[in-house]
Amino acid sequence: xxxxxxxxxxxxxxxxxxxxxxxxxxxxxxxxxxxxxxxxxxxxxxxxxxxxxxxxxxxxxxxxxxxxxxxxxxxxxxxxxxxxxxxxxxxxxxxxxxxxxxxxxxxxxxxxxxxxxxxxxxxxxxxxxxxxxxxxxxxxxxxxxxxxxxxxxxxxxxxxxxxxxxxxxxxxxxxxxxxxxxxxxxxxxxxxxxxxxxxxxxxxxxxxxxxxxxxxxxxxxxxxxxxxxxxxxxxxxxxxxxxxxxxxxxxxxxxxxxxxxxxxxxxxxxxxxxxxxxxxxxxxxxxxxxxxxxxxxxxxxxxxxxxxxxxxxxxxxxxxxxxxxxxxxxxxxxxxxxxxxxxxxxxxxxxx
Length: 352
Ligand SMILES: [Zn+2]
Fold this sequence. Notes:
Layout: E1 2-6, E2 15-19, E3 29-38, H1 41-48, E4 59-60, E5 65-72, E6 84-87, E7 90-91, H2 97-100, E8 111-112, E9 124-128, E10 132-134, H3 141-146, H4 149-160, E11 168-171, H5 177-188, E12 192-197, H6 203-208, E13 213-216, H7 222-229, E14 235-240, H8 245-252, E15 254-262, H9 275-280, E16 284-287, H10 293-304, E17 312-317, H11 321-330, E18 336-340
Parallel strand pairs: 11-12, 11-14, 12-13, 14-15, 15-16, 17-18
Antiparallel strand pairs: 1-2, 1-4, 3-5, 3-9, 3-18, 5-6, 6-10, 7-8
Helix pairs in contact: 4-5, 4-10
């Protein structure tokens, strides 16, 4: 089969198409014939050799993929050939304390697809049978792959922070993948959304996707702007994608008793916080990040029932994965970057 691999760590041109052996399933595994893969920042970190994950070279990237079941292992019960599925990125140990408590996203000994395991930048991928989620009738494989970031946003907003209809939500880094997804999802679930971004270029799109207000946190004092928009009260919930100094602004923009869900730390991993302010105002901060198969299934079902898919910025052939990485590195995009793993010409971007 064809796979896009890198044979040495380096810049985007390190990604090359190679013929590699097609995987065969072990007893508890399935092989997927992939139609789509998606590009994530993690892929760039792994390619650059700065992810902290040890990979075997040549390595195939890709944590997310959608396609059909192509082969099943001898002990597989839950899948049959031809079923449409999406990958679950994490191969858990199934025996640590968290796994036994049903918290598979907090497994203490996890392997990641496209990290320690060969990924989805390929025509086929092999996963353990519990690393797949059914794509329901009425949901296309393209919309499913485009919408994986909803699972991260869902874990933060719904599972961890218990978002309720009618609440006021601030999404920081709203122009990024998780941020855009959080804006659409929070609005879809009945919240009023304030989107914070670092530039005005994405304002109109964020408003069109459901944000009630957009604040440029570089041009305005974000807590003051949020107070002005909320009658001085602050928001009920913040989804913060980047930590750093922005986390202090998130705390200042939160009402007493409010919650903050943090899903990333690209803006700064160490933050000085005024604990007096935090506990006097009963504000809670939650770390989030990984979703579960149940959450991904909930996302797929919500999409089939009318949750709009996450916008797609561009689709690329497997052979052009390096170009997709360059687009992501340039940061000048809005929505997901997809790789077409199927046969024939690359389909169009669709409604976006
Ligand atoms: Zn575990």
